[in-house]
Every structure is written in structure tokens, then in C-alpha cells.
DNA sequence: AGAAAAATTGACGATTTGGTCAAGAAATTC
DNA sequence: GAATTTCTTGACCAAATCGTCAATTTTTCT
């Protein structure tokens, strides 16, 4: 226990403080941005929320926008993780179940990040770079191709893959972005793990029965 | 042409100017609020957007919050219109089709209002009064009962009605709230009527095949 | 037409905003 | 342990913020 303390401090000596404080700032910022958007969030609020003086924040980030775009960049990396479940080789039943499960799991464990992203989309996505926009587009296109393949092979009913994906995305995303609405609908104070499991079951059931060919 | 001018001015002489200007203000405000939220929208922006001097806005609305809550109240009145299609007497197939169609139609024709509402929900719905919250809850509960009835009568598969409704709501709402995302997914600049029709077809198909008992 | 009420608006004020700066405190390096 | 780099922070600024007000113009009423 005593010897263990010096080991981690050796690990990254020149970046320890910076990494810790940047993390603090970003964590406080994503929470506020996710609720009030870019224009609605004051840098003083971020400072107070993470317990650092405002001037210190400007030591790590040159502007408010820099904080915001850093968050976008960081979150976009995990954005399409769930889509990796959708592959041409896989059986649609399995692939779609896995996707819904993964997406709901992400929604539950990263409510704030999901909401931040939703807020940026509501705004029209003006802070996204052209490259980031294209990335999203390409990722979607790939998966749309997979679904098109499934349709061609008669593995699922003939449906518009684009709108099909929007259905999936919208439904799963909803539980993070509009957690309060979902809670009201379910007549609960907040969503529990059980609620997410019930959601998963219902969504998978409807989606699968809704797109698989009559057996 | 000359005689027609005096007729409409007789109609509501004491409220004409007020009504017109309040409408102008609210229209400009809902647009801005829908993009940037309450905190992110400046009253000067609203003034500029509706072509009235800022001081004039404060003649009609005492505070920024007054504008915002007026909008909430006004929009909440149309919020549950689409749900009226869901009645116990009706056949699930018809009722659900009608609901999806109505909801998508509303999303298409009232993009701004839908997005405004979504923004308020993202915020956590803090500007909603307790009565308004209860209203939403009761409306939902009624329709959940209808679906429960359908399940009991074997008209649809056994599913959790709450999550089923969330699916419907999330999917249809998506096309208004995240129009930009939908447009990117569909690889278009903006959504056309055709896109909404394709969305409707896909959603209805999946939802109906997904919940109707095997025929 | 003239009085009364409603509507308009430029100028203003207290407060808050994003961001700067320079002086000092800690940590790191040699 | 001294030099150097990194980090911290109170004080500050120009611009923007919400909201006020009193003087004026327009509309309505009789």
C-alpha cells in the first residue's frame, strides 16, 4: 500500500496535472453543455462546477469553443461503436438484437454525453466539421448497405434501410436524451436498470417481428 | 379593394395591433429558442428577428421567461392531438397508422415548434408547470390503457405499452427534432415531402408487422 | 375634433459576459 | 538547491446582457 503510491506518479510525470484538470473541466462542461447548449452555458458556471478558478480554465483551453469542440471530437469516437454489430455476415436477428442492446447500454451509462450530442444536433450540428459530418455519413452508408444486402438475400422484409436505421437510432437514443420524458411516461422518478431491460425487450421484439420475413 | 380594407379592421378593433405584434414576437422567439434554448437566446436577437425594437417587446412581455412560458402553454395544447387517433373502439391497424401519419405530418409542418419542445425536454422540462406535467402523464396513461386493452383482446401481440409508445413517439418526433441528422442519413440537403411519406410507410410497416399477431 | 388610451422607441443602467494579465506558487529538471 | 518550467489565481476590461423609463406618436373612443 505504501510502496504503491509512488508507482502511478512515475507513470506519466510530465502530463499528470494537465490530464487531471482537463478531465475535470471537460466533465463539468459536458454536463452543462448537455443541458443548456453552447450559448446557454457560461464559463463561470463551468469553473464553479469543477471547482477551479475561471482563469485556470483559460490556462487549459483558449476559448469556450475549444472546450466544446474538444468534447465533440472525443464523443464522436465512441458514437458509432454500437453500429459495429451490424455486419453482413451476421444473422439479422442476432445483429439487430446486439445493436439495440449495445445502444441502450451506452444510453444508460453515458446519459450526459448522449444528451450533449443531441443538443448539438438540435442546434443543427453547426459545430461539426465537414470531416466529422462526412464520417457520420459514411458510417451510416456502410450499414445501410448491410441492410440492403439482407433484403436482397430475403433475410428480412423489403424495407427502406435509411428509415429503418432512423427508427433504431431514434428509439434507443430517446432513453438518454429525453430520460425525463421516459420517466414520466413510465410514471417513475428516474429510469432504473430494469426499465432499460424492459425497453430492450420491447424494442427488439417489435423490430424483429417487424422486419423478419414471416416464418 | 377600397371597401374591403375597413371590414377586417372592424372585426376586433381593440386587439388587432396587440395580437399581431405578439404573434410576430412569439414566432421569432420560438425559432430562436428551438435552436439555442432559453439561456442561449438573447432578447435583442428576438427583437432583431421580428423587426421590433427591444423596448417594444418588453411592452408586450414583461420578461424573457414570460415569452418562453407563453410558448410552452400554447404548444402544449396541440401536443397530444395525434394521440386522439388511438381509441379502444378502433382497429389497432387503423389507429396506429393514423397516429403515425398524424404525428409525422405535424413534425413536418411544425418543425420549429417540435424542436422547441424537444429543447425544453432536453433541459429536463424545468419550465413545465406541475399541472402541465400531470396533463402529459394523464394523456399518456389513457392511451396506454387502450393498448393494454388491445393486448387483452388479442388484437396485438403482448408488449409493454409504455415502451411501445416511446418507440412511436421517438421515431416520429425524430424527423422534426433532428431534421439535419435525418437529412444527412438520407444524403439530402433537406427533407422533402417524399421523404416523410417514405418514413411513414416504413414506420407503419415495421410497427404493424411488429405488433400485430401472426395472421 | 379633442380627449384618453394604447403603442413606439432611443437612451440609459446595473449586472454579467468571455477573456486577459501579471505576479506568485508548485513542480520538475539539472 | 538553484534554475526553469508548469501551474494557479485575484483583479481587471471591454462588450454584451436583461430590463427600465419617460418622452413621443399612433390609434381609439365620444
UniProtKB/TrEMBL annotation, chains A, B:
Superkingdom to which the source organism belongs: Bacteria
Pfam families in UniProt: TetR_C_3, TetR_N
> Mind listing where the DNA-binding region sits, in residue ranges?
42-61
Q: Which SUPFAM superfamilies match?
A: Homeodomain-like (SSF46689), Tetracyclin repressor-like, C-terminal domain (SSF48498)
Kindly state which keywords UniProt assigns to this record, in alphabetical order. DNA-binding
Provide one Gene Ontology biological process annotation.
negative regulation of DNA-templated transcription
Q: Which residues form the HTH tetR-type domain?
A: 19-79
Cross-referenced PANTHER family, in alphabetical order? HTH-TYPE TRANSCRIPTIONAL REGULATOR RUTR
List the GO molecular function terms: DNA-binding transcription factor activity; transcription cis-regulatory region binding
By what name is this protein known? Answer: TetR family transcriptional regulator
What is the species of this protein?
Mesorhizobium alhagi CCNWXJ12-2
User: What InterPro entries would the database entry show?
Assistant: Homeodomain-like_sf (IPR009057), HTH-type_TetR-like_transc_reg (IPR050109), HTH_TetR (IPR001647), Tet_transcr_reg_TetR-rel_C_sf (IPR036271), Tscrpt_reg_YcdC_C (IPR013573)
Does the keyword Metal-binding belong to this entry?
no
